[in-house]
Amino acid sequence: MEKYGMNTNCLTLARFFLHEQRKHKEATGELTQLLNAILTAVKAIQSSVRKAGISKIFGLAGNTNTTGDDQKKLDVVSDELFINMLWSSYTTCILASEEDENAIIIDKHKQGKYIVCFDPLDGSSNIDCLVSIGSIFGVWKRESDSGEPTVKDALQPGNKLVCSGYALYGSACMIVLATDSGVNGFMLDPSIGEFILTDPNMQIKPRGNIYSINEGYSAKWDEAVKEYINEKKFPKSGKPYASRYVGSMVADLHRTLVYGGIFMYPATTDAPNGKLRLMYECNPMAYIIEKAGGMATTGREPVLNVIPTDIHQRVPFFVGSKEDVQDVLNCYKKHGLTAQ
Fold it and tell me: Alpha-carbon distance 184 to 171, whole Å?
C-alpha cells in the first residue's frame, strides 16, 4: 500500500472505531461521535502546546483549580476546548473536569447518554520547561434514563467504564485508547491531521525493572512503601530496579505501559488519602493498564472497585506490571495494611 511513498490504506482512529462499532449491533454511533469530539480537542491542545512559547501562553493564569493547584494558561485553554467540544457533540449529559469545582450538566436539548470525566492537561507544572504532558479521560454511560442528570450519576466505579484513554504531547502526539476489547495506540500524523494505528493490542510486561515514585516524600510514606522501595534499591540478589520519575503522570504511565515496571503515588502523612484524583486520573489509567494485562490498586483494594463519593476524591495509587504491583500488595499484607 506504500508504492506511492505513502500508505493509502492507513487505519485511522476514526476508521478503527467504526470497525469496532460494527461488532455491536446495538451501537448507535454515539460513542464514536463522542470520541471524535475528544480527538478535535486533543488536536487543538497539541497545537496550543507546540506554539505556547511563541503565542505567550506559558506561565500562570493567576487562579487555582478546585484541587488547589495553580492553573497555567494552557490548563484553562485545554479545559475550555474539552468542554466546548464535548458540550456540542450531543453525546454527553455530565462533564467533570479537574479544573472545575462542580460537575457540568449539559443543556437538555444537547444531552446524550455518556458521562465524561477528564483532566484536560495533566502534568501542567512541567509546561514551561517543555517536559511531556498529556490529557486523560474516562467515559461512563448514565445508568438512569429518568429525570434530569445529577452529579450522583457520575459517581460510578471504574469497573463500569465504557472506555478510557490518554493523549501524550511529547516528541510525538499519541493517543492510547482502552475499550473492553483491548488497548491500542494511535500516533498523530501531522501531514494529514489524523491519528494512525501504530501500536495495536498493547500489552504490559508481567514484570519490569523500573519503579517510578517521587522519593522526595520518602520520610512521609508508610512502612509498606518504604520496605518495597528498599527491596528494589537493595535486592538480596540480582540487579536493583532503575528509578525513573518525570513528574507528569501521562509520561510516567506511558513509559510503564511500554517498558513494564510500576508507577506509585502513595499516601503520605500529609496526604493520608493520596494526591491523585480517582475519577479523572486513577480510574482511566487503571482501566488502561488492566486491559493491557497489568494491575492497579490503592494498596487496600483494586482502584476500579472504589465506590466514589466525590468527583474530586483522592486515592493512593499503585499501577503497572502485575507481578510488580503484587509485590507492593505483599508488603501491605505483611504490615497488616491491606484488605485486598
Answer: 19
